[in-house]
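Teaching assistant's notes for section 4

Start the section by putting this record on the projector. Ask students to predict, before seeing the second block, whether Probable non-inhibitory serpin-Z5 will look compact or extended. Collect guesses on the board.
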Amino acid sequence: MYKLIKIFTETLMMDPKGKKQKLSTSAIASPSLDLKKKKKQKVSKSLITTSPSHSEKDLVIPSPSVISKVDVGIAMKKQTDNAMFLTEKVISAVATDSNFVFSPTSINAALTMFAASSKDETLRSSILSFIRSNSIDELNAVFSEIATIVLPDGSASGGPKISAVNGVWMAQSLRVDPSLKDLFENFFKASFSLVDFRVKAEEVREEVNAWGSKHTNGLIKNILPPGSVTMDTVSIYGNALYFKGTWEQKFPKRLTRDKEFHLLSGTSVSVPFMRNNRKQYVEKYNGFKVLKLPFRQSGDTNRQFSMYFYLPDAMDGLNSLVEKMASSTCGFLDSHTPRIQAEVGQFRIPKFKIDFGFEASSALNGLDLGSFKLYHKALVDIDEDGAEAAAVTAVSCASGGRGSNRSRRIDFVADHPFIFMIREDKTGTVLFVGQVVDPSKSSSD
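Reveal the predicted structure now:
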């Protein structure tokens, strides 16, 4: 089960002269998305007091333009490569030699929604540069591709259970132009609420946290920490992603045994390892091996979700492998994907459950969000049947090529630190990525 919550809290300075300021965007309701009929504007009545005064500005957005001349295939490949770029930046900043997990897809989706509705050109340029995208149109094209191909629920046909939910909370003191509301409801498919941050900021925070808990079946609580929503807050952007998959080939529980896992320190710990005797999607490359474990798809033939394990040959080779994967500019992930099942000799991978949290101001130092703070927490748990994961992100701001050494039988013993990844194979979308340095530990603390 993969669950994801992403929250953006944005606080903007009010124009003391009461002038209107336009929020510009080039986002559209993509032809690949079925536009819903306009809904009545949802207002959290318990969080609203009085109507805005004439001194308060309007939030206005021009009519959405058409996404044009965007090569979606190239844009998707760029986002796939950027996943490892983000991974290396976060690991080097806050997760050196520790267990780690996060969701590039979640971060990209939230930044896309934020950028598409922001009037701040400097901020938008910073987001585009950080995500390595050429334009807002390109960001929106990638968002649309992922929303329509990767994220639809496949459980009815026997595939993974998936849902994607967006939510937006804006200050009721702002006169919101209908085109902005349409952008969130029709393109981002977000619920839209007007709330009173000035008087009931804490109640809004609790409401958003309850929303997050609901869409993760209670796994993720307190998405927004105390003090992250204040009377100066004017908007919150939220995204929840849920995924539940079962291995195509489950691991027999009777074969699970405790074995030694070698740590970077030179010591070892005893942890349960899963095993089976079947052929595996595994390949040897220069200095590392890659294992692909597909999730069961059944009748869902348009997609294929898999979990990948990148195991360095050297016991202490994790950091070098991360650098190699992040520095590649020619589709490293696609060119290092096992395509054919092979006989395995020794084969075992550890069961693990890890969680990780970080405040991204230092980790994502290439992203200039001004006074905004971006919080991210994630969890992944794998066992003999499948995997379970959850992630939470919150942004708040106060006012102001394959190897040639293939053998007939390949050993894959993940008994030392490795990288893992959950991908949708046909689009290359990376949902989760992380590293395991000590599977006996579940917390990053």
